[in-house]
Amino acid sequence: MSKRILIVDDEPDISEILRFNLEMEGYDVLTAEGADEAQQIVESSIGSNGSIDLILLDVMMTPKSGFEWAEELKADPRTRDIPIIFCTAKTLEEDMLHGFALGSDDYICKPFRVSEVKARVKAVMRRGEGHSGAPEVTPLQDKASPRTIVYTPSPLMDGRGGVVLDLDRKECRVDGEEVAFTKLEFELLALLLSRPGQVFSREEILRTVWPSDAIVLDRTVDVNITRIRKKIGRYGECLRTKFGYGYMFT
Questions:
Q1: Could you tell me if 134 and 187 are in contact, meaning their C-beta atoms sit under 8 angstroms apart?
Q2: Which of 55, 94, 187, 226 is the most exposed place for a label (fewest CB within 10 A)?
Q3: How far is CA 204 from CA 3, 84, 236, in A?
């Protein structure tokens, strides 16, 4: 079955150009001119055979911006795993970082080349199929799963809970509570947690976790590290910055 892409842009000409070219690549493409219309399409696709596999999302729309709708999507357990690529004229670095902080998988600035969009879409689709290039790890074994990575806190951290990554179910539990992670966040935490005490440079992280043909900002790793620290709560202090070198979990 063809992968289904939803294009959300209030400029019909842009949507039509993208739709035509992506359909030529074999994708099933839907379009919407705003977040409300797009939400209806996503709602109707949930639980059906025609689920949305990726969203190309403009930012500067009314009455609800692309950033606002993306935040809603990522807060909803039913839609948080749908990959999002922002396609927008907002080109400032803080806008790009905000887009990544919301959990987007890529950020393309207008005006763009159609060939670039197709390449980015292909990279994100391949990443979603499990070809991100993340290394095979040798995790600690846990009775709850045949493949888990476990961090158990020391007595100084009151002796309860911990961080458990289930590599088969792609789930993370912090002190027994499941925490939602994007695919990149999960694989980045798995990389660091599987090699405690080892420092990974930004370049090593990008090369290992991100697809080889992905185009990302230097600070993309920093943004994802910040999000992970927040999500793992009191264990965030274990994810340390080694200034001038990179990051480690210790």
A1: yes
A2: 94
A3: 31, 24, 21
Torsion of CA 182, 185, 189, 191, to 10 degrees: 110
- Euclidean distance between CA atoms 224 and 210, whole angstroms: 12
* 108 sits in which H/E element: strand 106-109
Kindly report the average pLDDT of the chain as a whole number.
82
Q: d(Cα 71, Cα 47) in Å, to the nearest integer?
A: 21
Largest CA distance in the chain: 61
pTM equals 0.56
Structure tokens at 202: 């930004």
Q: How far apart are CA 151 and CA 181, in angstroms?
A: 17
Backbone angles phi, psi at 111, to 5 degrees: -75, 145
Are the CB atoms for 134 and 209 separated by under 8 Å? Answer: yes
**Among the listed ranges 108-112, 130-134, 148-152, which one has the minimum average pLDDT value?**
130-134
pLDDT digits (tens, 9 = 90+) for 39-63: 999 999 887 667 899 999 999 998 9
Q: What's the CA gap between 11 and 34, in Å, rounded?
A: 10
Tokens read off for 226: 């910040």
